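Whether sequence alone determines local backbone shape is best considered at the level of individual chains. In the encoding step, the backbone of a single protein was reduced to a row of integers, each denoting a local shape. For completeness, the protein is quoted in full, as a sequence line and a line of structure tokens.
***
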Amino acid sequence: MPGDVLAGAAAARTPWHPRVLGATASSVCMYWAGMALNDYADATVDAVERPDRPVPSGRVPRRTALAVATGLTAASLGLAAATGGRRGLLGALPLTALVWSYDLGLKSTPAGPAVMAGARAADVLTGALAVAPPGAAASALRRGTLPAALMAAHTYTLTALSRHEIAGAPADVPARTLAASTATVLATAAGPLVRG
């Protein structure tokens, strides 16, 4: 997602480097690929829970969703390589692996929220890596670690909550999500004050 990449680039203190545009476009393509892949993978479940969605309703063939996901993934990796070279691929490949493994099998397992959180953290680190000067990748990644961790924490709790969107959640789940989101916001706001 664009915000993830920009957060990582800002943490590395170079938010407007030209490579950020390529990393952002790559991230958007991967996000869209994940949405199409999700529709492909969830066709059977959606036929029961969300029958009006494009794939279960028959408006879009399931194989088309897979083809779109594959094409957008190729576009994402191509943009990452074209604009960032090996460094761009270093950021895009882990994100690709996390998105595809989440949608094709890990989403409904206990590991699902952690994998989604890892994907968002990887996206933030991609932004930090994109703007790193030659020889300074490790330093840029260190600077991106805190925003990546905050994004991961926020995403983990929301993903855990989203598992209950059909059947409803026990009262403690939304309460924990709200508490974790509040803590994440406070930690994000406190970051610049601590560094200052």
Summary: Residues 90 and 126 are 8 Å apart (CA to CA).
